[in-house]
User: What shape does this take?
Amino acid sequence: MSFSAIPLDGSKPEQYAQLLGQARALLAGERDRIANAANLSALVSHALPQLNWVGFYFYDGTELVVGPFQGLPACVRIPLDRGVCGAAASTRQTQRVADVHAFPGHIACDSASRSELVVPLVDADGALLGVLDLDSPVPDRFDADDQRGLEAIAAAFIEALR
Assistant: This one.
């Protein structure tokens, strides 16, 4: 298989629509969550500016465990009652944090991270699979367009697992 990422252009919503198309093409026909998480992490990391970490944490029934990612080495295990990832997993709601240092219980895996967006991965039955986590060294990097776009990409990831 050969894959070429096409540079994104247009408005931010148009760019996310293009990125979603690339993600769906990349995930097509593959159901393995590790393979898909690895490729999706690389795609998003290379497509979006001002990121220093993109990756997955998978729920093992007790806590979140690091999965495939792009960036510096990460925290291996995250309890559901700690940090932005834990908040997204336990509430099953996307967490968009403008300043991670102001977030109660923030876990500083990379001291360069200033803002974060974490999308929970929940299957059709409501079971928690994990989270998609993006960090940026730029304060307030993520907006509502980023949230909607990355939630759509996370949904494509979950859909590919079926």
User: Anything to note?
Assistant: The two ends are 21 Å apart (CA to CA). The helical segments are 12-27, 33-47, 83-91, 144-160.
